């Protein structure tokens, strides 16, 4: 404990530590003063979309930062995930994790592909290369691996597997902008990566994303499809859609990149302090980075072992909610247990790690408006729980009956 005494938990009658609430996500966009110098020229020009100068500048900046040869900015990462398999003209099966955000697999289904959902590595919570290898069959066309909570998957092992079997390799790096693997920034691995600049991400533009790749033909096809398939003549050469990023989103992204390194360092420091404090509490464990990787502090996930910690994941969440702390159960339910997939054709591999993780995982608040003192107060509260599990459970049961 860093505090002088065990805090009186709100669920047991104490005062909430965060009476105004501690939000799970609270983006900190660039100051208006910094935006105005770009906003006024944009409004004066009337160029609000259609690959204006800010989108073009943003694409160049993202390509440079990631080391990828090509960057195509899109309205959101989901559209990027839709367009890459479409551009590859895939058919058949695509291997992906079930432990991921819904968009990863939704994009495959929208492309009329059959998802093959396989298990995750229990240490990193990212796609297990061994499970991928075991799931490859005659209909397998590609692998989609996901950067989870800013933790990269085992990119080297997955690239070896993809090359050996002649498969496309797409990385869903929606949560990974700013993370590194093998001393390189994410963005230039596999056949393509898809980034997200959603409000909850490390570089928030409200909505926004990018397809980054070293494949010039893929970038050209994706860019064409983003604008209805119209090469500029009005005579569409492919059946595209509207996936263009707006000038406003790019403006926010460019301004955010000016302080990104400082903001990323702050987020990493918060994540590291969570790691130090929580890893010392019996019954709690946190996902690990693969060798040679550096995370971006996107999320802090903790796994709760009821037998050792004294409370279940759901009970800990209720304790923190009483303190005003908002948490999320990412990603519970996993894809294969979502209602939307009851009538969707999928192929399932064994998923014991996925099932265990989904029952026990809790993501804690981590955002740029938090300070180290916020991390300490959250950890003090969590640390106080194992000393009084019986009292906590009794009170939660009373509240449940009243509800």
Attribute tags:
14 strands, eight-stranded mixed sheet, 403 residues
Structural overview:
With 403 residues, the chain is α/β, with parallel strands linked by helices. It is 39% helix and 14% strand. It is built from 14 helices and 14 strands. Strands 1-9-8-5-4-2-3-13 form an 8-stranded mixed β-sheet, with helices on both faces. Helix 6 (155-165) links the parallel strand 4 (140-146) and strand 5. Helix 1 runs antiparallel to helix 8 and helix 9 (260-278) runs parallel beside helix 13.
Structure annotation, total helices: 14
Distance between the termini: 33 Å
Query: What percentage of amino acids are in beta strands?
Result: 5-15%
Helix content: 25-40%
Succession of helices and strands: HHEHEHEHEHEEEEEHHHEEEHHEHEHH
Helices and strands, with pairings:
Blueprint: H1 32-45, H2 53-66, E1 70-74, H3 77-88, E2 93-97, H4 102-110, E3 114-118, H5 129-135, E4 140-146, H6 155-165, E5 168-173, E6 180-181, E7 184-185, E8 192-196, E9 209-213, H7 216-226, H8 247-258, H9 260-278, E10 284-285, E11 293-294, E12 300-304, H10 306-309, H11 313-322, E13 347-348, H12 352-360, E14 361-364, H13 372-384, H14 389-402
Parallel strand pairs: 2-3, 2-4, 3-13, 4-5, 5-8
Antiparallel strand pairs: 1-9, 6-7, 6-11, 8-9, 10-12, 12-14
Helix pairs in contact: 1-8, 2-8, 3-4, 3-7, 9-13
In short:
With 403 residues, the protein is α/β, with parallel strands linked by helices. Helices cover 39% and strands 14% of the residues.
């Amino acid at each position: 404990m860093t505090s002088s005494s065990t805090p009186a938990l709100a669920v047991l009658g104490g005062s909430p530590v965060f009476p105004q609430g501690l939000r799970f996500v609270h983006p900190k966009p660039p100051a208006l003063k910094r935006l105005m110098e770009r906003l006024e020229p944009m409004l004066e020009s009337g160029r609000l979309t259609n690959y204006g100068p800010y989108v073009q500048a943003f694409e160049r900046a993202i390509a440079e930062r990631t080391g990828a040869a090509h960057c195509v900015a899109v309205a959101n990462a989901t559209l990027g995930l839709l367009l890459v398999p479409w551009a590859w003209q895939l058919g058949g099966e695509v291997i992906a994790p079930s432990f991921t955000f819904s968009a990863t697999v939704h994009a495959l289904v929208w492309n009329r592909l059959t998802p093959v959902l396989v298990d995750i590595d229990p240490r990193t919570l990212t796609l297990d290369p061994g499970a991928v290898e075991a799931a490859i069959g005659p209909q397998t066309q590609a692998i989609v691996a996901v950067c989870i909570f800013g933790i990269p998957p085992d990119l080297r092992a997955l690239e070896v597997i993809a090359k050996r079997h002649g498969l496309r390799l797409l990385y869903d790096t929606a949560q990974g902008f700013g993370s590194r693997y093998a001393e390189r920034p994410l963005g230039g691995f596999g056949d393509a990566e898809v980034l997200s600049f959603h409000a909850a991400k490390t570089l928030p533009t409200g909505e926004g994303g990018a397809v980054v790749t070293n494949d010039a033909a893929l970038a050209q096809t994706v860019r064409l499809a983003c604008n209805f398939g119209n090469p500029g003549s009005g005579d569409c050469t492919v059946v595209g859609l509207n996936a263009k990023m707006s000038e406003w989103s790019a403006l926010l992204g460019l301004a955010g990149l000016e302080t990104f390194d400082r903001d990323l360092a702050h987020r990493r420091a918060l994540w590291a302090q969570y790691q130090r404090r929580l890893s010392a509490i019996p019954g709690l464990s946190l996902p690990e980075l693969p060798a040679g990787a550096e995370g971006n502090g996107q999320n802090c996930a903790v796994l709760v072992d009821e037998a050792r910690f004294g409370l279940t994941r759901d009970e800990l969440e209720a304790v923190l909610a009483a303190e005003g702390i908002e948490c999320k159960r990412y990603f519970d339910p996993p894809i294969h247990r979502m209602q939307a997939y009851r009538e969707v054709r999928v192929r399932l591999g064994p998923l014991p790690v996925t099932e265990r993780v989904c029952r026990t995982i809790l993501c804690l608040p981590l955002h740029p408006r938090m300070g180290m003192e916020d991390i300490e107060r959250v950890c003090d509260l969590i640390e106080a729980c194992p000393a009084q599990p019986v009292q906590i459970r009794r009170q939660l049961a009373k509240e449940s009956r009243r509800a």
